[in-house]
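--- STAGE predict ---
source: upstream dedup step, 1 unique chain passed
mode: sequence only
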Amino acid sequence: MSEDAKPHLSVMLPEVLAALDAKSGDVIIDATFGAGGYTRAILATGAEVIGLDRDPTVQVHADAVKAEFGDRFQLIRTPFGDLDDAFAESGKAKLDGAVFDIGVSSMQLDQAERGFSFMRDGPLDMRMADTGETAADIVNTWEHGPLAHIIKLYGEERQSGRIASAILRRRAEQPFTRTLDLADAIEKALGGRRGAPIHPATRTFQALRIAVNDELGELERGLEAAEKTLAEGGRLVVVTFHSLEDRIVKNFLQERTGNMPGGSRHAPVAVDTRKPTFALQFKGAQAATAEESAVNPRARSAKLRAAVRTSAPAWNIGGRA
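--- STAGE serialize ---
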């Protein structure tokens, strides 16, 4: 069985459940519902779950969970950056936990028509929702500078300028509409594979997906929304899969737990009088076990961070009241 054909497995499920510590009667938000793997396991503890997802294709999975667990589950179609609004819509009084599984799911990668993967031919779309700018819109209309910038920033691609130049040259002859067409153009721009451990288009496709879905901005908004919404003692659990995501979560928790690294010894340190809104459950990040990584390749890069909400008022960083 190929990696892409493997069943969808919830990454670090035992560790997620341990960090959430959900009990009967608790209300938990599964901020990235997907195929419902985390949700089903949380519901099995007796807790209630509010699932969030902006992807319209998850409805079939939500219907199956609803049929099995009834009123203890509800799905709200929304990006998790609006977690606070979704919780208010749910009608629940107290939020005891929130879990995030960040990034594209294997379920989305497996759907060629979604355009996430360069391993399957499909329309160059990459939208997790069904509205907004597509990847084709970006590669066919953006100027060289902004295009190279996102490929470098979000894809951490050193050859971003060369790739952007190749895209502009090719689109002048014919616009890009298909995933394999773009992947082939990138591969040619970088001189072929030459035994590279990953496909030459990997980082560019990641960058486009992040830009199309504003994934990093969504993550920042989601963390702030969880901070505003979790009750005292509520647990925040986040699983990330690459360094850009993990850095945002790490910095957020360092700041909100009062554990930011010290400043320069030559410069005065500003005193922040805001009280910590979270306490870490453990230092650093947990990784998946070797056993899980062996059977689920997606788990190899996973990092889990978790914290408990204190009684301090939320910081109004994002400006949302």
